[in-house]
Amino acid sequence: MSGRADFVGYEYKDITINQEQESLFVDGYTNFGWDLDSVSKSVTSLKIKFKRDRKIRNKAELTRLQRQFDACVDEMEQLERSKKTTARIVAYGIALVGTIGMACSVFAVTSGLITLSVIFAIPGVLGWLIPYFSYKKLYQKKAAEITILMDQKNEELYEVSKKANGLLPK
To answer: Mind telling me which residue stretches traverse the membrane in this protein (predicted)?
Structure first.
């Protein structure tokens, strides 16, 4: 009969993440009382299964802190995506102007207006060359700004995890 006194009921949590985030979530979720149960890999993602004692102390506060952790990770993902967004929009806009210039150049040459064709071709060619360089420059500028914010978010993750870990039974 002594085996029944040691019964532990578990709750389970499954998350699907990018492979690069495996360490972040495995390390992070242990601070909220979760134990790694299994990891399933697909081509681009991971499915991680966790379990923890249903009767863990401070469960409500741990759950609140875990939500804060998840929100912080989501914000970090959005920041990472935002590095490319502005640079892409500007580069596509310049390329569109270049394409319009080339189209006008073609229409001008088919109409026999060679001088006008050359005038339109110059911004057309530039509009096809400049996007690469503008993308690189804007991406680097945004990446430098984002690095500071990412460092702040990493510090926030550390603090939340530290606080949650302090609530776990020793």
So the answer is: 89-108, 114-133
How is residue 71 written in tokens? 């929100």
**Residue 86 counted as domain residue:** yes
The residue assigned the tokens 């990891």 is: 39
Over residues 97-144, the pLDDT tens digits come to 999 999 999 999 998 899 999 999 999 999 999 999 999 999 999 999
pTM as predicted: 0.74
Please list, residue by residue across 17-42, b when 16 or more beta carbons sit within 10 angstroms of its beta carbon and e when fewer do.
beeebeebbbebbbbbbbeeeeeeee
- Assess whether 97 and 140 both reside in one domain: yes
More confident residue, 155 or 4: 155
Question: Are 95 and 137 contained in the same domain?
Answer: yes
